[in-house]
Amino acid sequence: MVLGAHVSTAGGLHNAIKNGTDLQCDTIQIFLRNPNQWQGKPPTSEIVEKFITAWSEADLGEVIVHDIHLSNLASPKPEVLEKSRQAFREQMELAQLLGIRYLVTHLGAHLGEGEIFGLKQLSNSFDFLFENTEAPDVMPLLETTAGQGTNLGYCFEHLRDIISMSKYPERFGVCLDTCHVFAAGYDMRTESDCEATFNQFDNIIGLERLKAFHLNDAKSEYQSRVDRHEHIGEGNIGATAFAYILNDSRFTETPFIIETPQMKTMHAVNLSTLRELKA
Length: 279
Ligand SMILES: [Zn+2]
Ligand SMILES: [Zn+2]
Description:
Blueprint: E1 2-6, H1 15-22, E2 27-30, H2 45-57, E3 63-66, H3 78-98, E4 102-105, H4 115-132, E5 139-143, H5 156-165, E6 173-177, H6 178-184, H7 191-204, E7 210-215, E8 217-218, E9 229-230, H8 239-246, E10 255-258, H9 263-277
Parallel strand pairs: 1-2, 1-10, 2-3, 3-4, 4-5, 5-6, 6-7, 7-10
Antiparallel strand pairs: 8-9
Helix pairs in contact: 3-4, 4-5
The chain binds zinc ion (2 copies).
């Protein structure tokens, strides 16, 4: 299995590589900039070099980027839409420069304009980005969401529709977050629930699109549409789902990333819980 965690880049992007290898990660996820600010200071060429060297010397596979939290590529507000696209474009181009191929993003919110409007807006945003960004090897991964407020992406059909409305369907992948899909109403508490959920995913989106997992247990309730992560095995999803995913032969090469709370102190614990669930 390919198991890892979202890790800090404090002190420079290259530090993420050490943070990952210290935890014996096979893969990591990072932010390329402060996720709570629109403006990102691009890394110096020295930092870029350090990152590329550190990664090439480390025993570490995929590095995945997560988009900033402010992003809303579905926004009906022109100013927010423009800022979201600009930030996404900069992150795509930096990912390309760093040799990173996956950029995970939440789908944003329609803010009352309706789901059909929001999905079309998203599809248009990605087409704009594919046509105006020099990042041919970077694949955006649409992340399943819990569906708080008017957030899109709480059902598999939303992801399918964005991809099918795009002029460039081959450029998309999907990231499945266990906490989010559970809160959105896809049960995973028993093996047969997992089977049903992945069958639905396969029928609606296609498992070949599934390029990464976020493995998070849920503090939120089933169908609550609330996004609150919990330590593995301690939330409302429970260990069965994680054992199912980790041992499913369809996912042996798919990166598994934890985004569980208290990363400094608890990542090692959550990773070891997952390693024990691997048969
Ligand atoms: Zn996630
Ligand atoms: Zn979440």
